[in-house]
Design brief:
Strand order of the largest sheet: 1-7-6-5-4-8-3
Helix content: 25-40%
Shape: globular
Structural class: alpha+beta
Number of helices: 6
Order of helices and strands: HHEHEHEHEEEEHEE
Distance between the termini: 26 Å
Length: 224
Amino acid sequence: MISALCILLSASLGFTPTPADTLRARTILVELAQHNEESRSMDVNDHGQCRRFQADSFAKAAEGFTLSEYPGVTLYLPLDHAKQEVSGRPAGTCWDMPDASTGNAFVEAARFEFDAALPEGENVAVALEFLTNVRAGDMLQMVGRYNSGGRGTHTLMFTQPYDPRSEYLYWSDSNFANRRVDGIRYGSVRAYQRWTLREVAGWLASEGNNGATLYRLRDDVTAR
Protein backbone atom coordinates (compact mmCIF):
# COMPACT_ATOMS: atom_id res chain seq x y z
CA MET A 1 0.00 0.00 0.00
CA ILE A 2 2.85 2.36 0.84
CA SER A 3 4.39 1.84 -2.61
CA ALA A 4 1.14 2.72 -4.38
CA LEU A 5 0.57 5.83 -2.30
CA CYS A 6 4.15 6.97 -2.87
CA ILE A 7 3.57 6.83 -6.63
CA LEU A 8 0.32 8.73 -6.37
CA LEU A 9 1.82 11.41 -4.12
CA SER A 10 5.16 11.74 -5.89
CA ALA A 11 4.06 14.79 -7.88
CA SER A 12 3.70 16.76 -4.65
CA LEU A 13 7.35 16.01 -3.89
CA GLY A 14 8.62 17.33 -7.19
CA PHE A 15 8.44 14.11 -9.23
CA THR A 16 6.04 13.52 -12.09
CA PRO A 17 4.72 9.95 -12.29
CA THR A 18 4.39 8.50 -15.76
CA PRO A 19 1.03 7.10 -16.91
CA ALA A 20 2.48 3.61 -16.37
CA ASP A 21 3.38 4.56 -12.78
CA THR A 22 -0.15 5.80 -12.20
CA LEU A 23 -1.68 2.64 -13.67
CA ARG A 24 0.52 0.43 -11.48
CA ALA A 25 -0.59 2.38 -8.43
CA ARG A 26 -4.25 2.19 -9.43
CA THR A 27 -4.03 -1.58 -9.92
CA ILE A 28 -2.46 -2.03 -6.50
CA LEU A 29 -5.15 0.11 -4.86
CA VAL A 30 -7.95 -1.77 -6.66
CA GLU A 31 -6.61 -5.03 -5.25
CA LEU A 32 -6.03 -3.68 -1.75
CA ALA A 33 -9.67 -2.58 -1.70
CA GLN A 34 -10.75 -6.21 -2.21
CA HIS A 35 -8.81 -7.60 0.75
CA ASN A 36 -10.66 -10.46 2.47
CA GLU A 37 -13.38 -10.61 -0.18
CA GLU A 38 -14.40 -14.05 -1.43
CA SER A 39 -15.56 -14.93 -4.95
CA ARG A 40 -16.51 -18.13 -6.72
CA SER A 41 -13.41 -19.98 -7.91
CA MET A 42 -14.49 -23.09 -9.78
CA ASP A 43 -13.00 -22.33 -13.19
CA VAL A 44 -10.76 -19.82 -14.97
CA ASN A 45 -13.65 -17.48 -15.75
CA ASP A 46 -14.59 -17.01 -12.08
CA HIS A 47 -13.33 -13.81 -10.41
CA GLY A 48 -11.98 -15.76 -7.44
CA GLN A 49 -9.48 -17.62 -9.64
CA CYS A 50 -5.96 -16.23 -9.32
CA ARG A 51 -5.54 -15.35 -13.00
CA ARG A 52 -9.04 -13.96 -13.47
CA PHE A 53 -8.74 -11.88 -10.30
CA GLN A 54 -5.61 -10.20 -11.64
CA ALA A 55 -7.10 -9.69 -15.11
CA ASP A 56 -10.36 -8.24 -13.72
CA SER A 57 -8.55 -5.95 -11.29
CA PHE A 58 -6.19 -4.70 -13.97
CA ALA A 59 -9.05 -4.07 -16.41
CA LYS A 60 -10.83 -1.95 -13.82
CA ALA A 61 -7.69 0.07 -13.07
CA ALA A 62 -6.81 0.46 -16.78
CA GLU A 63 -9.99 2.28 -17.77
CA GLY A 64 -8.88 5.51 -19.44
CA PHE A 65 -5.45 4.17 -20.47
CA THR A 66 -4.10 2.85 -23.76
CA LEU A 67 -0.74 2.49 -25.57
CA SER A 68 0.96 5.39 -27.32
CA GLU A 69 1.79 3.24 -30.36
CA TYR A 70 -1.74 1.78 -30.55
CA PRO A 71 -4.02 4.51 -29.15
CA GLY A 72 -7.23 2.69 -29.99
CA VAL A 73 -6.62 -0.48 -27.97
CA THR A 74 -8.16 -1.47 -24.65
CA LEU A 75 -5.48 -2.68 -22.26
CA TYR A 76 -5.65 -6.17 -20.79
CA LEU A 77 -3.62 -8.75 -18.89
CA PRO A 78 -3.27 -12.06 -20.79
CA LEU A 79 -5.17 -14.97 -19.22
CA ASP A 80 -4.01 -18.00 -21.18
CA HIS A 81 -1.06 -20.19 -20.23
CA ALA A 82 1.37 -20.83 -23.06
CA LYS A 83 1.30 -24.40 -24.36
CA GLN A 84 4.47 -26.34 -23.57
CA GLU A 85 4.91 -27.43 -27.18
CA VAL A 86 4.97 -23.75 -28.19
CA SER A 87 6.94 -22.15 -25.34
CA GLY A 88 9.29 -25.04 -24.61
CA ARG A 89 8.63 -24.44 -20.91
CA PRO A 90 6.51 -26.37 -18.38
CA ALA A 91 2.81 -25.52 -18.61
CA GLY A 92 1.75 -22.83 -16.16
CA THR A 93 5.14 -21.13 -15.88
CA CYS A 94 4.43 -18.51 -18.55
CA TRP A 95 1.60 -16.81 -20.41
CA ASP A 96 0.61 -16.88 -24.04
CA MET A 97 1.65 -13.34 -24.99
CA PRO A 98 -0.33 -11.71 -27.82
CA ASP A 99 1.15 -8.68 -29.57
CA ALA A 100 0.83 -5.23 -28.02
CA SER A 101 -1.32 -4.22 -30.99
CA THR A 102 -4.12 -6.28 -29.43
CA GLY A 103 -3.90 -4.34 -26.13
CA ASN A 104 -1.61 -6.72 -24.22
CA ALA A 105 -0.13 -4.30 -21.70
CA PHE A 106 2.68 -6.50 -20.36
CA VAL A 107 6.17 -7.62 -21.33
CA GLU A 108 8.41 -10.30 -19.85
CA ALA A 109 10.89 -8.86 -17.35
CA ALA A 110 12.66 -12.02 -16.10
CA ARG A 111 12.24 -15.78 -15.90
CA PHE A 112 13.29 -18.70 -13.71
CA GLU A 113 13.69 -22.19 -15.14
CA PHE A 114 14.60 -25.20 -13.00
CA ASP A 115 17.84 -26.76 -14.27
CA ALA A 116 18.23 -30.44 -13.38
CA ALA A 117 21.91 -30.26 -14.36
CA LEU A 118 22.75 -27.86 -11.54
CA PRO A 119 24.13 -29.18 -8.23
CA GLU A 120 21.70 -29.33 -5.32
CA GLY A 121 21.08 -25.88 -3.93
CA GLU A 122 22.15 -23.91 -6.99
CA ASN A 123 18.61 -23.73 -8.33
CA VAL A 124 17.69 -21.93 -5.12
CA ALA A 125 20.47 -19.39 -5.74
CA VAL A 126 19.20 -18.82 -9.29
CA ALA A 127 15.63 -18.43 -8.01
CA LEU A 128 16.80 -15.94 -5.38
CA GLU A 129 18.52 -13.85 -8.05
CA PHE A 130 15.43 -14.01 -10.24
CA LEU A 131 13.23 -12.67 -7.44
CA THR A 132 15.47 -9.65 -6.84
CA ASN A 133 14.06 -8.25 -10.12
CA VAL A 134 10.66 -7.62 -8.51
CA ARG A 135 9.13 -4.14 -8.78
CA ALA A 136 5.79 -2.88 -7.48
CA GLY A 137 3.03 -3.76 -9.93
CA ASP A 138 4.86 -6.70 -11.50
CA MET A 139 2.89 -9.88 -12.11
CA LEU A 140 4.29 -13.34 -11.42
CA GLN A 141 3.16 -16.52 -13.16
CA MET A 142 4.58 -19.57 -11.41
CA VAL A 143 4.50 -23.29 -10.75
CA GLY A 144 5.84 -24.33 -7.35
CA ARG A 145 5.44 -26.57 -4.37
CA TYR A 146 4.08 -24.54 -1.48
CA ASN A 147 4.27 -24.77 2.31
CA SER A 148 1.09 -26.83 2.38
CA GLY A 149 2.83 -29.51 0.32
CA GLY A 150 0.57 -28.87 -2.64
CA ARG A 151 2.02 -28.10 -6.05
CA GLY A 152 0.40 -26.04 -8.76
CA THR A 153 0.17 -22.86 -10.78
CA HIS A 154 -0.41 -19.44 -9.29
CA THR A 155 -0.65 -15.84 -10.47
CA LEU A 156 0.05 -12.88 -8.17
CA MET A 157 0.93 -9.18 -8.20
CA PHE A 158 3.76 -7.68 -6.18
CA THR A 159 2.68 -4.62 -4.21
CA GLN A 160 6.18 -3.48 -3.28
CA PRO A 161 9.56 -3.62 -5.02
CA TYR A 162 12.26 -5.97 -3.83
CA ASP A 163 14.25 -4.23 -1.11
CA PRO A 164 17.69 -5.76 -0.38
CA ARG A 165 17.43 -4.45 3.19
CA SER A 166 14.40 -6.66 3.78
CA GLU A 167 14.02 -10.42 3.55
CA TYR A 168 10.38 -10.21 2.46
CA LEU A 169 8.35 -10.13 -0.74
CA TYR A 170 4.91 -8.48 -0.61
CA TRP A 171 2.05 -9.30 -2.94
CA SER A 172 -1.68 -9.46 -3.54
CA ASP A 173 -3.55 -12.49 -4.86
CA SER A 174 -6.73 -14.54 -4.82
CA ASN A 175 -7.32 -18.25 -4.24
CA PHE A 176 -4.02 -18.86 -2.43
CA ALA A 177 -6.50 -19.43 0.38
CA ASN A 178 -10.00 -20.73 -0.32
CA ARG A 179 -12.95 -22.56 1.20
CA ARG A 180 -15.90 -24.62 0.01
CA VAL A 181 -19.55 -23.90 0.70
CA ASP A 182 -22.08 -26.50 -0.49
CA GLY A 183 -19.47 -27.93 -2.83
CA ILE A 184 -18.57 -24.58 -4.40
CA ARG A 185 -15.03 -23.26 -3.90
CA TYR A 186 -14.58 -19.58 -3.07
CA GLY A 187 -11.20 -17.93 -3.47
CA SER A 188 -10.16 -15.41 -0.83
CA VAL A 189 -8.33 -12.19 -1.67
CA ARG A 190 -5.17 -11.74 0.39
CA ALA A 191 -3.91 -8.29 -0.54
CA TYR A 192 -1.23 -8.14 2.13
CA GLN A 193 0.71 -11.35 1.58
CA ARG A 194 4.24 -11.38 2.98
CA TRP A 195 6.74 -14.20 2.53
CA THR A 196 10.51 -14.32 2.81
CA LEU A 197 12.55 -14.19 -0.38
CA ARG A 198 14.18 -17.52 0.44
CA GLU A 199 10.85 -19.20 1.13
CA VAL A 200 9.44 -18.22 -2.25
CA ALA A 201 12.67 -19.25 -3.99
CA GLY A 202 12.31 -22.64 -2.30
CA TRP A 203 8.83 -23.07 -3.76
CA LEU A 204 10.21 -22.51 -7.24
CA ALA A 205 13.41 -24.54 -6.89
CA SER A 206 11.94 -27.57 -5.14
CA GLU A 207 11.71 -29.83 -8.21
CA GLY A 208 11.83 -30.11 -11.99
CA ASN A 209 8.97 -28.70 -14.09
CA ASN A 210 8.68 -25.78 -11.68
CA GLY A 211 9.40 -22.31 -12.97
CA ALA A 212 8.18 -18.73 -13.14
CA THR A 213 7.98 -15.63 -15.29
CA LEU A 214 7.92 -12.03 -14.10
CA TYR A 215 5.78 -9.69 -16.21
CA ARG A 216 5.95 -5.89 -16.15
CA LEU A 217 3.62 -3.19 -17.42
CA ARG A 218 4.77 -1.62 -20.67
CA ASP A 219 6.46 1.79 -20.38
CA ASP A 220 4.49 3.24 -23.30
CA VAL A 221 1.17 3.24 -21.45
CA THR A 222 -0.56 6.57 -21.94
CA ALA A 223 -3.85 8.22 -21.01
CA ARG A 224 -6.58 8.20 -23.65
